Amino acid sequence: MDVPAATAGEAVGTLGRQARISIGFRDPRLARMRVKPVRGRYTPAQALERLLAGTPARARRVASASFVIERAPARSYAPAVRPRPAEPAIEPSPAEIVVTATKRDVPLAAYAGGAQIVDGETLSVAEAARGTGLIETRAASVTSTHLGPGRNKLFIRGIADSSFVGPTQATVGQYWGNSRITYSAPDPSLRLYDVRSVEVLEGPQGTLYGAGSLGGVVRVVPNAPDLGSAGGNMWGGVQAIQHGDPGVDGGAILNLPLVEGRLGLRVLAFGGIDGGYIDDRERGLNDVNRVATIGGRAALRYRPDDDWTIDVTGLGQRIVGDDSQYADRFEDGLSRASTVAQPYRNVYWLGDVVVRKALGPVEWTSSIGYANQHVFEQFEGPRLADVTRLDMVPDAQAPPTAFTQNNRIAMVTAETRLARRGPDGTGWVIGASALRNRARVHRRMGEAATRELLTGVRNEVDETTLYGEYGVAPLADTTLTLGGRLTHSKLGGRSEDTLRSIALRVDPEAADTRSETRLLPSASLSWRPQAGTMVFARYQQGFRPGGIAVRRDFIQRFNGDRVETLEAGGRVEGDSVEAGITVSHTRWRNIQADIVDGFGFPTTANIGDGRVWSLGWSGRWRPAAGLEVDAALYLNDSRITDPALSILPLETGAIDRERLPNVADRSGRIGVRYSGRLGAAAGFDLAGYARYIGQSTLGIGSILGRLQGDYLDTGLELRIGDDRRGLSLTATNLLDARGNRFALGSPFLIRDEDQITPLQPRSIRIGFDAAF
Questions:
Q1: How far is CA 283 from CA 286, 338, 341, 450, in A?
Q2: Which of 57, 119, 297, 650 matches a 20 to 30 Å C-alpha distance to 373?
Q3: Secondary element (H or E) of residue 536
Q4: Where is 651: in which H helix or E strand?
Q5: Residue 291, Cβ neighbours under 10 Å: how many?
Q6: Pairing relation of β-strands 682-697 and 666-678?
Q7: Nearest-angstrom CA–CA distance, 456 and 564
Q8: If we measure between CA atoms, which residue out of 581, 618, 638, 695 comes closest to residue 158?
């Protein structure tokens, strides 16, 4: 190593080139401090330690060839050298950003595809409390349904199937660190406290992630235990909701090095109540849709030496909603008339073990994870004289009924891989994985005291996979990447709570076991004509296996679907400006979708073939020190090009040439962040955003083909304090807009009622945070 004395930003650039490693900054202000020279033979970790000696910063390894420089805890260093005041008028951009979701740490500047990365350091406590709702706010390509926290579905860049959560696998792969979060279940909306980053990869990711990544992948990377220093933080807040009840939230994080440098524990606990704001005119109740959330996380890291890392993590979260959050268009759009309560809950558990070992330039990673989820939902049902006759026409004189659905999902995943990172996106990864998912759905309908069992279903999926990806540089400033995934799926399904002989007589293929084998190729090409500029083209596939669904009182089979996406785009990065653009075309064959039959019961079927065009642009501008402006625009055009003949007009209506549901035809976002000083001891951070969501439809067919969207969501947050403590003021929905988000109330009443799902009214939160 031969790194002269300079600013940290200049020095790590020199060191990164010499050691062929990636080094990033948590806080761009650290890039301006002066650091010592380093000359001699050192490992990268040793060189960084000497470089930062005597400064208020430290380096932390985040991957085999990647480090992040962050501010050290106050008592872990002696401030012998004060950072020199900033010389340039414009802050330098952070050093190289790495896309770890590629499984071989590809620099964002060299990644051939659409990607958005949210730095966990920029997330406030109020944002983290929104769970995956904050991803939708920060990443313009991500949309979500809004049935309520713990029962939503995420979509990326135009690939969406429906508002309901049925037996179909999600179109977005969701991961917590190295483990898959869900398979055939709703988004558990895990609170994003204490996370290092959130990565969104746009478009199919079949090669690296397999089934269920048709639209893309969302990967949350939590903060690992710090093996060098003890500490933590705590926070709390109260919220006032206009037209609704107040809310409260709080939590704490504790980090303990049990054996300094070798063994550490990190524990998180949190809880909160979101006040209700929907009134029920029929039952004479106000603010019925209160939601209570409680959860926690514990992580243990063991590093016996510099090459081995073992992480053991467990997390749990429980969400209980007192009632559904839909309304009708009468009065102020914040009330409805229901005959019964419509509560729900989502209880989620995840445990995993991840082992990593550095084998020189190669990193070996092996993991095993277990996820368990229980989702309970209750809907206001149709008025039926005999609830055992689901083919009867509803009778207004019959007593009110409730429909309940219990969905229990258990999933085991395992993966092992070898990866080598090269410069400019070159390198390779090869791996094998296995997955087992078991999902059971039980349903009941009737009056509260005498509910009858309805036909349920059990789906089982076992997958084994081999995959690999290899990136080479055939020409200067050019990277060609080829990959493929071979997946064998064994599928099984059968009816629950009814005689199997009856179910088989209705549909002989409905309860059976079968196998599917899929080969998913991929290819990408990137070219860097000059420093800071890259253009790319990419081809990728994705798929979902089939399964068993319930239709009224019997079961039926639906087949797997597949997408093929071709996209092209580019990025430009400068000292103060970043921008990227992507255009993609997707062919979607044999689309799985959750629909509503002619009697209001949700079911699943293959609705035909479709196509999706998408255009996305995003940019970031730093015009002055402490000021950053970001903007994004996404346009989507989706159509069903070849509807399936098996879809009965009685149940879905005409679907020829209809758009796919729940993805706005256009959406855009603009955000502003500004940081400054308030004297020598304190500073402030001000952030605001405005996000427009265009029109979409609720679902497929004449029953669900109602327009929604076309609203503006806004937010503003101010924090005053320092790195150790602060006070914050957060406001959301500044315009107190109602809108109509991507959701509905009871599927049994949608034919006759004009249901909407409004935004949460204007809300104000006052909070505090303190580190120790």
A1: 9, 7, 9, 21
A2: 119
A3: strand 533-544
A4: helix 649-652
A5: 22
A6: antiparallel
A7: 33
A8: 638
Cα–Cα dist 298/267, whole Å: 4
Contacts of residue 32, defined as CB under 8 A and 6 or more positions apart, other chains included, come to: 7, 8, 9, 83, 84, 86, 87, 88, 91, 92
Query: Would you say 295 and 250 are in contact if contact means Cβ atoms under 8 Å apart?
Result: no
Q: What is the DSSP string of 363-382?
A: EEEEEEEEEEEEEEEEEEE-
Secondary structure percentages of the chain, helix, strand, coil, to 5: 10, 55, 35
pLDDT in tens, 446-503: 875 567 777 778 888 999 999 999 999 999 999 999 999 999 999 887 777 664 444 4
Instruction: Assess whether the region 1-96 and the region 216-771 belong to the same CATH fold.
Output: no
Say if residues 624 and 639 touch (Cβ distance below 8 Å): no
Q: Are 305 and 247 in contact (CB under 8 A)?
A: no
Residue 253, phi then psi, degrees to nearest 5: -125, 135
From the options 3.40.50.300, 3.90.1150.10, 2.30.40.10, 2.40.170.20, give the CATH code of 216-771. Answer: 2.40.170.20
For residue 365, the one-letter residue type is T
Residue type, 102: T
| Alpha-carbon radius of gyration of the chain | 26
The single-letter DSSP state of residue 394 is P
**pTM of the entire predicted model:** 0.84
- Residue 273 in tokens: 């109540």
Give the Cβ contact number of residue 300 at 10 Å. Answer: 18
Write out pLDDT tens, residues 375-424. 999 999 877 766 656 556 666 677 888 889 899 999 999 999 999 988 88
* Residue the block writes with tokens 């296995």: 434
Pick the CATH number of 1-96 from 2.60.40.1220, 3.40.50.720, 3.55.50.30, 3.90.870.10: 3.55.50.30
State how far the alpha carbon of 315 is from the alpha carbons of 181, 191, 270, 301, in Å.
Answer: 11, 11, 11, 15
Sequence-ordered strand ranges (E) for 303-399: 308-321, 327-328, 335-336, 344-359, 362-381
Residue 164's φ and ψ, nearest 5 degrees, are -80, 160
- Average pLDDT over every residue of 358-383: 92
Ranges of each domain in the chain: 1-96, 216-771
Element (H, E) at 558: strand 554-558
CA nearest to 738, candidates 720, 711, 717, 719: 711
CA-CA distance, 485 to 522, in Å (whole number)? 9
| The residue to which tokens 């071709």 are assigned | 566
E strand or H helix at 618? strand 608-624
- How far apart, in whole angstroms, are the C-alpha atoms of residue 66 and residue 24? 8
Distance CA 395, CA 44 (A): 75
Distant-in-sequence, close-in-space partners of 573: CB < 8 Å, separation ≥ 6:
93, 109, 532, 533
Its sign, for the CA torsion 380, 383, 385, 386, is negative
Question: pLDDT digits over 39-53, tens only?
Answer: 888 888 888 888 888
Alpha-carbon distance 619 to 579, whole Å? 4
